[in-house]
């Protein structure tokens, strides 16, 4: 049984906090954030000691119509630069690119010409070969890369071991454990993290965790997997993210003992920008419909529809989920 | 390092689920539940497989004015019987009595004449001698007893070891780890649970856990301490309880694998009774002000006032907490 690394009082130098508010939160409002919101969040993250800020997706403009989304679905170089200039801060800039839903061979500059530092390659477990091809291409352009294996709670052990072996043979820097359905508990999230860490440590790679809050466990799973050696921690302001949302940055910054992390700057942003965003009708966060899909270990799409339709007939909804198992 | 007991797939025969909705939730509405609410919750708990239902406090009618509270602050025998009759169900009936705020020598019948099965004695750690005196008295009346040591996150290790030794020498049946301030993380909640369990196992006693949701960890801490051997688990419908509330019963019932536990009955109750209760203006649950007091390991009283005053100036409030540390 793997031991915990560090303890609740100490600082772990390997820890990196990534703010995914615009990217995962953008799934709640089609990436339609005001320029002021994004600029203030950028400044806030720098003040709060956040290590990486994810600006959104590099989605294919062939597959997706630009008019249907805010600009952070596409993260053009000039749009990021309009916020960060040359990003003279210590905080690094990340974007996400989905396997099969981006044009990575045309849409990425060499890193030396870009303000982007890291590309996070998201895929399902059967797409690992395609992910590795993307990772090698982006690595050769000079980027830090991660591979975010989504929906891992539905993968079987053999698949996962093979996927991890392929990634450990690749140039990827960080392998992410992603609880897309919010169905993991601290106990099995930690067991999975130990599997990732055992593979990663042999090949000098880091492991990250990205949680969802369907069972109110996003923060708990983040700090539990952290305690066993996970280093890259995703969080968002007020947990803003698809469906039940993610690990709340304010919980995470309040937990971490490294004095570089500063909660108060984030509180100012929350009060000034997040509360009005919620009041404007953008919806995310824990609710029963997401608890159901988390408990049943399935995609939250029906729960998102239930939310969008302003329904509160939880019993009928729960029965319909059991009917469609 | 203590191992986990059982696993995520199995059933642990020692587990007992206690519904504390009327008792801890009553702190949100001065125990003013309708008779219909309490009666339907009683039926729901039986259908859901809940092992104990806590009806409220046995508070002193000298110290507290009956007109200021609903009847579940006092839990008179006839009031409980008006709901449960002779309680012919398998579910047991519990009440809580606070050390120093009850008249236990006059207000308890012998168990053979009462419908109450268990008395939970709540105290702070410096009140253990008084708690033990109460426990022995109530044990001699025939009741099952627990000792709920509140605010344990502020006790030091020596105090705690002495308290546990005194309780292990007493007639108490269950010793509760109570995270009154919602300041524990799964890691230190589990370490504390192991300390309780090591003491309790030598003397044939059980250990319980009662969480608060200040850092969104009430459920996580409940199932983590469970995994190391805690047996008695407190939860409430929709987490209703003082301040940030408690572990949500629906999360717990969805987690436990014993087929005796039934989520659907509870959902029906939530839809019919809890949603209207919330809509009527009774307030509880996770919010930033409670996160602050949890992170700072202190009583939520200022956060409760902040809530009662409908404030949303979180930054000012946070600064005021730091000023009064």
Keywords:
homodimer; 325 residues; alpha/beta; TIM Barrel; 2 domains; 8-stranded parallel barrel; 13 helices; 42% helix
Please give a structural write-up.
Two copies of one chain form a homodimer. Chain A has helices spanning 21-29, 35-48, 77-84, 104-107, 128-140, 157-168, 186-202, 218-227, 249-255, 263-279, 288-295, 301-308, 314-323; strands spanning 16-19, 52-57, 92-98, 118-123, 144-149, 174-178, 206-210, 232-235. In chain A, strands 1-2-3-4-5-6-7-8 form an eight-stranded parallel beta barrel, surrounded by five helices. Chain A has 325 residues and is an alpha/beta fold. The two termini of chain A are 34 Å apart. The first copy, chain A, has two domains: 16-279, Aldolase class I (TIM Barrel), CATH 3.20.20; 288-323, no CATH class. In chain A, 42% of the residues lie in helices and 13% in strands. Chain A contains 13 helices and eight strands. The radius of gyration of chain A is 19 Å and the shape is globular. The A-B interface holds A 1, 3-4, 7-8, 185-188, 213, 215-221, 223-224, 227, 248, 250-251, 254-255, 263-264, 267-268, 270-271, 275, 288, 291, 295, 312-315, 318 and B 1, 3-4, 8, 185-188, 213, 215-221, 223-224, 227, 248, 250-251, 254-255, 263-264, 267-268, 270-271, 275, 288, 291, 295, 312-315, 318.
